[in-house]
Write a structure and sequence with these properties.
The protein has helices at 3-11, 18-31, 36-44, 49-74, 82-93, 99-114, 123-137, 155-161, 166-179, 231-241, 255-273, 276-288, and strands at 141-142, 163-164, 184-187, 194-198, 216-221, 227-229. With 290 residues, the protein is α+β, with helices and mostly antiparallel strands. It folds into two domains: 3-74, no CATH class; 84-288, no CATH class. The protein has a four-stranded antiparallel β-sheet with strand order 3-4-5-6. Strands 1-2 form a two-stranded parallel ribbon.
Length: 290
Amino acid sequence: MKKKELNALISLLDDPDEKIFEQVSMKFLSLGEEIIPLLEDAWEHSFDTLIQNRIENIIHQIQFDLMKDALKEWSHPEQQNLLEGTLLIARYQYPDIDIVKIKKQVDQIKQDIWLELNENLTALEKVKIINHIIFDVHNFSGNTTNYHAPQNSYINNVLESKKGNPLLLAIIYTIVAQSLDIPIYGVNLPEHFILCYVDIEHMGVPSTPGNEGSNVLFYINPFSKGTVFGQKEIDAFLKQLKLEQMPGFYEPCTNLEIVRRLLRNLISSYEKLGYPDKSAELKILLDSLG
């Protein structure tokens, strides 16, 4: 778009006629991502609060539409990389997120673990090394003082603050472990997300009633610095919640289920804080995943 045309549209952003503003807004939205730098430049050179607010809303809507389309694309089975999905969610709050920096931070954790591994280690010994590097060397921990805060669900914040909720800590743990070919996966346990170490030889073999999680060697709780436990502890936890023992509470879940849960956590966080607009948008993103 030529500068003259852009300026003409910008000048209409303070028009009191809602129909004219709607037409102008739709025009900007139709131009998509390429128009954002021009809108940002117009924002910087404007001293009109109304125009600035409207520009901010248009930019946000463009970025939101882009993110929704990207999430739909990511939801295809062959595209469901966990780190990429988690980064997409972070872009909702942080559109200019430094993806290269985040991947370097994750790679550093992976490298530190890799240096301690060898082929002779048992599954439990590998987990002890992962726990040591993540929780002792890099000092990650559960955010118990501000448990429901939205920042606990954004990977860039958690990597910087070293504090997160059970799900985000589990996501970082899983991404690093799987990048090292260690078979650790998420478990969609109600009220508390955990991990499991899978027996590769029996991976994909469905469990039978009364023998849930039969392909799992043990479970891991990243929120308590990687505590290892067994099926009986899950049984007791479900009994405490007065919930039936469902296979999905014991077995690995998909990356799609993890990202859905991440969105539900954020929806709940923003509802608690009194941000209905954010909750409504995140519900749209959740619906886009099918």
